Amino acid sequence: MTARPVALVTGARAGIGRAIAVGLAQAGFDLALVDLQADAALQETAELASRHGARAVALAGDIAAIDQHDALLDAAEQALGALSCLVNNAGVSVLSRGDLLDVTPQSYDRCQQINTRGTFFLTQAFARRLVQREAGQALRSVITITSSNAQAVSVLRGEYGISKAALSMASRLFAVRLAENGIGVYEVQPGLIATEMTAPSKARYDAEIERGLTAIKRWGQPEDVARVVVSMATGALPYTVGHAVPVDGGLLLPKF
């Protein structure tokens, strides 16, 4: 029997991360599921994935703690075998929305430490492992979830946008560096996706969507993002390098 490919998904306890985990399980992946704590929610994600035939392990890990990255990858591989896919989904928003002139160093640094620095160095550690190994039959990929705010300006959460814009560049850099090693590197830019993170803004954006903020007049769902990630992880975009796919219902398209 052919071994199943193994993916590590960060920020997997709920929302987009959970949907990605289930989608990859349906596509034939085994899964190392990572979040700050291996709590009941993360265990539930593992259980949902296992219903689709996946071996799934829940691992506690803080991507901002870069000195722990190798131990995290070791734990995943000891449980499931060699990793072939990394999905960088973990991230945080601002501590509080507000005037750009009032952004605090604490909120700015938090976004940078987790969204940008942590993800960059986890990708680096993962990529080093893959480069040192001969390519097997499994497709190899890195998929990073950024945001529509990697492009669109939101002055009420500027530090978040800065961190995601930097992460978008990091994804392109890794894409070029790893192309020669047969590792596909991709970016997904979600727009308004219905999750715990966006719930506080639901009423505001419900009205904006109805007025035409998005071409498709509904909120995106985590499964909309997951479908794109699965396409990337399963090799549906073989001749693309650093491709960023907006999953935003037309939010970023210029309209008049």
Give a structural overview.
The radius of gyration is 18 Å and the shape is globular. It is built from 7 helices and 7 strands. The longest helix is centred in the middle third of the chain and has 28 residues, at 105-132. A 7-stranded parallel sheet has the order 3-2-1-4-5-6-7, sandwiched between helices. Helix 1 (15-26) links the parallel strand 1 and strand 2. It has helices at 15-26, 40-50, 69-80, 105-132, 158-179, 202-210, 222-233, and strands at residues 6-10, 30-35, 56-60, 85-88, 140-145, 183-190, 244-247. 45% of the residues are buried.
Quick recap:
The chain has 256 residues and is an alpha/beta fold. It has helices spanning 15-26, 40-50, 69-80, 105-132, 158-179, 202-210, 222-233; strands at residues 6-10, 30-35, 56-60, 85-88, 140-145, 183-190, 244-247.
The assigned CATH architecture is 3-Layer(aba) Sandwich
Strand content: 5-15%
Global mean pLDDT: 95
Helix count equals 7
CATH fourth-tier homologous superfamily = NAD(P)-binding Rossmann-like Domain
First-to-last CA distance: 55 Å
Spatial strand arrangement across the major sheet = 3-2-1-4-5-6-7
Shape: globular
List how many beta strands DSSP finds.
Answer: 7
> Within the CATH hierarchy, at the fold level, what is the topology?
Rossmann fold
Written as H for each helix and E for each strand, in order along the chain, the element string is EHEHEHEHEHEHHE
Secondary structure category: alpha/beta
Proportion of residues in helical segments: 40-55%
Rg, Cα atoms, Å: 18 Å
Please indicate the count of domains: 1
